[in-house]
Write a structure and sequence with these properties.
This protein is 82% helix and 0% strand. α4 packs antiparallel against α5. The protein is flat and about 95 Å long. The two termini are 51 Å apart. About 8% of the residues have low confidence.
Amino acid sequence: MPRQVVAAACLGAAALLLVASGPAVRPARRLRLLAPTRRAERSRPAWWPDRIRLGAGLAGVAALVVVGGWPGALVGALAAVAADRLLRRIEPRAVRDRRLRETADLPLAADLLAAALRAGAPVDRSVLAVAEALGGPLADRLGRVGRTLELGGTAAEAWDHLRPVPGADRLVTGAVRSSNSGAALAGALTRLADDLRSDRSTAAEAAARRAGVLIVLPLGLCFLPAFILAGLVPVIVAVLGDVL
């Protein structure tokens, strides 16, 4: 019993560390707290493990306590390494929310930028105007693009801030090509916005079809035992009763 108590305490502490490592905060508040967070991270010693590694270590200790002995030490080490690798592959909630918001705002940003360029505004002013009107995490990246262009940076350096956004590669390529060749960018942005909306609609339809396929298994697991008990078992019992 004490082993189970110690293991449960270690797992509970690991869960608390993992929950505390990824707080769900609003994007605006997260931006305001970005600098203090980085200062706090820099104040931590380089040799001190982060919360994910501490949680994985506690999971390894729990495995060691449960198994015990040298086999427990081996199982605990493997469990700690596996937990650390798996937990680092999980995308934090704040990062996922930011990515989804940026992906959703990208078609609108392309339309607004195309409208500003058609109105005769230069590229840097257009990008800054769209960033101010749009808001959100994508507006922060667009603001960096506009400020880089204003300060005399190259188009490749400026638009490279948008490359981490899913689907923005075509926008970056078109903007860099337009700056090098002088081709009009507004038409390409309008076509890009239409393509992005079409891709998102196609992805949503595919996800809906996939959900319909995946739901068949749990429904089958629920209804098959009921069908056997309500439909087949009475027939088999009746037949066996007549035979016997």
